[in-house]
């Protein structure tokens, strides 16, 4: 990586101490990660129309000894997660691992296969299914199951299934609430999440010992085509049973755990339990660094307890949509119990300290896991972390404010930074003192204080260089894969300029499936309030295949009402447009113009034809490449 440097002595020493503190020679996980290996792809690159979207050999360097520029614990985790190929979990259940951030699970039925969680991209999903078929025969897909509402568990579905398959009766199963959460997460705040995800997964970083070595949960995200086929069958309650192609399944709903809509699956004929993303070989996120709704660890622990009660006596292997399985009834019980205790401990101890008056930063510094939990590799913070998870618990219960009135009305970053630097004697003085801190190994303080210089003077070359060096050292020492990626991506942008956002979550397929109400909500989010304060527009769409939709822009707020009858306070529309819902969707998504629709006889306009254009003129475009490490 351009401008990258070696590990400073304090980072090298800290990383070396990991080897003395934890049993890096423990091989049990490596044996589990190798178990059942059938084979892998002959081609190392998975390609799409625009080039490679995944490289199976990008992490081959992890087979070497851990260098000083990486935390040995994270290096170990990345070696495990990078292993790729087709693996037999138990007779009749296979996983393709290492073809994306997540795993694809394939369960063999009477005439075909049930595909669970078809990865992020159609290209990687198709490659994973092709690998399975090369070794197990060209079996048709007779069912698809989404375990939860995150894109790495549904985005590649059109790589394994078509609309024609669904029309022919192939079921697509998902937990109740799946579609609402799958589309809203990727649309409402999708631009900001996507930008931060570029940092979180380090997709712009070169792979290597001074660059991206993994993200803890998996290596990184593929960059192919994201798609979505709506579910045809929903799981609505725990204990619900379904049989697909002769495969009986018992479901446990786990809403509000790792995702707002999620489920576990017991396969009684196989004595196997699919844990979705509720129990993996890492401490998971309670608030992911890309941004999302806060997850409640109390609820998470409850559902793991319920899973133990419902299934543990009848399970010989547990597997998830990330990482490698756990075999043996006693080991499965121990794994689930420790995962449960992990989330319960973080929840309960954060609340204890919170109620003693401690702030989020204080709790994060004070929190330590019990030794028995810390000794278990799968409780380490490779993806979530004790530090940012405790802050998430605080946020869940008390929000952003720590109770100190001095923090109620602080200056925003640039204004505060300008004042800080002035108070500290100017940029030259701050940088001189920061270089002393860097030499002493206090990189955490360097990053905190030099950030003020950068926000006061973003063109200060010396500050950019020093900040990049400090962030890089913090990345080298991070056990958490997403922290490392954030630090190193920040350093990369400071040195080389914006790296962009590799993945667009709000893909055309997701926008096409978005319910009309949510599509209109997504427009309301884009209204530039100040520019539209004085506007008062009313538009009514008379749908040939649905209830009329009324839009009203007033006071900078876009309201939509779906009703055939009158609405209190509704005024006569400036414009009425008669058309089909598909044409309205195309209009709202910018895929069609009102003039063209009218010329083709697909839209009939009554009133002012310019009202819609005026409304669109008040919409702002989100910025997928907004600044993060500079103002």
Task: Fill in the keyword field for this structure.
21 strands; 22 helices; 631 residues
Short structural summary:
The chain is built from 22 helices and 21 strands.
Question: Would you mind describing this structure in some detail?
Answer:
- By secondary structure, the chain is α+β, with helices and mostly antiparallel strands.
- Helix content is 39%, strand content 15%.
- The strands form four sheets. It has an eight-stranded mixed β-sheet, covered by helices on one side. The protein has a six-stranded mixed β-sheet with strand order 11-12-13-14-15-16.
- A hairpin with a 4-residue loop joins strand 13 (263-267) and strand 14 (272-274).
- Helix 9 crosses helix 12.
Topology:
Layout (H helix, E strand, L loop, with lengths): L8 H13 L6 H7 L2 E3 L5 E4 L2 E5 L16 H10 L3 E6 L2 E5 L6 E5 L4 E4 L5 H15 L4 E5 L17 H5 L4 E4 L2 H10 L2 H12 L31 E3 L5 E4 L2 E7 L9 E5 L4 E3 L22 H15 L5 E3 L6 E2 L1 H26 L5 H7 L4 H4 L11 H13 L14 H11 L3 H13 L3 H14 L4 H17 L3 H16 L11 H6 L2 H10 L10 E8 L5 E6 L2 E6 L12 E5 L1 H8 L5 H6 L4 E4 L3 H7 L14
Helix pairs in contact: 1-16, 6-7, 7-17, 8-9, 9-12, 10-12, 13-15, 14-15, 14-16, 15-16, 16-17
**Whole-angstrom Rg:** 26 Å
- Low-confidence segments, given as residue ranges, are none
Specify the structural class. Answer: alpha+beta
Strand order of the largest sheet: 1-4-5-6-7-8-9-10
Beta-strand content: 15-25%
Largest sheet, strands/sense/barrel: 8 strands, mixed
């Amino acid at each position: 990586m351009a401008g990258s440097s070696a590990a400073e002595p304090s980072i090298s020493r800290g990383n070396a101490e990991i080897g003395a503190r934890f049993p890096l020679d423990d091989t049990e996980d490596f044996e589990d990660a190798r178990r059942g290996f059938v084979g892998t792809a002959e081609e190392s690159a998975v390609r799409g129309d625009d080039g490679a979207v995944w490289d199976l050999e990008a992490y081959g360097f992890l087979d070497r000894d851990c260098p000083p520029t990486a935390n040995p614990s994270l290096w170990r985790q990345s070696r495990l997660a990078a292993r790729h190929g087709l693996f037999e979990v138990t007779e009749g259940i296979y996983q393709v691992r290492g073809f994306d951030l997540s795993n694809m699970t394939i369960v063999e039925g009477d005439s075909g296969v049930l595909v669970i969680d078809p990865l992020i991209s159609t290209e990687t999903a198709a490659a994973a299914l092709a690998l399975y078929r090369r070794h197990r025969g060209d079996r048709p897909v007779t069912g698809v199951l989404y375990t939860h509402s995150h894109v790495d568990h549904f985005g590649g579905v059109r790589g394994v299934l078509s609309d024609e398959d669904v029309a022919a009766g192939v079921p697509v199963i998902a937990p109740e609430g799946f579609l609402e959460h799958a589309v809203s997460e990727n649309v409402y705040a999708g631009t900001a999440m996507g930008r931060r995800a570029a940092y979180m997964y380090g997709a712009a970083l070169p792979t290597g010992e001074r660059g991206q070595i993994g993200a803890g949960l998996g290596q990184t995200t593929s960059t192919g085509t994201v798609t979505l086929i709506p579910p045809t069958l929903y799981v609505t309650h725990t204990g619900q049973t379904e049989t697909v192609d002769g495969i009986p399944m018992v479901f446990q709903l786990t809403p509000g755990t790792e995702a707002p809509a999620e489920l576990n699956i017991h396969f009684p004929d196989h004595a196997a339990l699919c844990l979705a993303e509720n129990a993996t070989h890492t401490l998971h996120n309670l608030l992911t660094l890309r941004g999302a709704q806060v997850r409640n660890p109390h609820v998470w622990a409850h559902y793991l307890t319920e899973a133990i009660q419902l299934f543990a006596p009848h399970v010989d292997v547990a597997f998830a949509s990330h990482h490698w399985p756990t075999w043996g009834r006693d080991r499965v019980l121990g794994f689930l119990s420790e995962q449960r205790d992990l989330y319960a401990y973080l929840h309960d101890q954060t609340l204890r300290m919170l109620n003693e008056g401690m702030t989020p930063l204080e709790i994060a510094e004070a929190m330590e896991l019990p030794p028995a939990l810390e000794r278990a590799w799968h409780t380490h913070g490779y993806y979530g972390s004790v530090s940012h998870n405790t802050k998430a618990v605080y946020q869940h219960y008390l929000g952003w404010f720590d109770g100190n009135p001095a923090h109620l009305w602080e200056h925003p970053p640039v204004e505060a930074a300008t004042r800080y630097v002035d108070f500290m004697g100017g940029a030259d003085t701050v940088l001189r003192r920061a270089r002393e801190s860097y030499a002493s190994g206090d990189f955490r303080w360097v990053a905190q204080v030099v950030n003020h210089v950068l926000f006061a003077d973003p063109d200060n070359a010396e500050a950019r260089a020093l900040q990049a060096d400090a962030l890089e050292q913090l990345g080298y020492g991070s056990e958490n894969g997403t922290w490392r990626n954030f630090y190193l991506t920040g350093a990369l942008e400071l040195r080389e300029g914006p790296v962009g956002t590799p993945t667009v979550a709000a893909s055309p397929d997701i926008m096409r499936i978005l319910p009309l109400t949510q599509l209109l909500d997504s427009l309301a989010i884009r209204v530039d309030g100040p520019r539209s304060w004085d506007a008062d527009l009313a538009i009514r769409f008379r749908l040939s295949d649905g209830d009329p939709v009324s839009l009203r822009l007033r006071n900078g707020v876009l309201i939509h009402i779906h009703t055939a009858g009158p609405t209190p306070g509704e005024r006569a529309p400036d414009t009425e447009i008669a058309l089909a819902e598909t044409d309205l969707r195309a209009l709202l998504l910018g895929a069609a113009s009102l003039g063209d629709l009218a010329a083709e006889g697909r839209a009939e306009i009554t009133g002012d034809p310019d009202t819609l254009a005026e409304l669109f003129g008040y919409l702002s475009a989100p910025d997928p490449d907004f600044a993060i490490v500079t103002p």
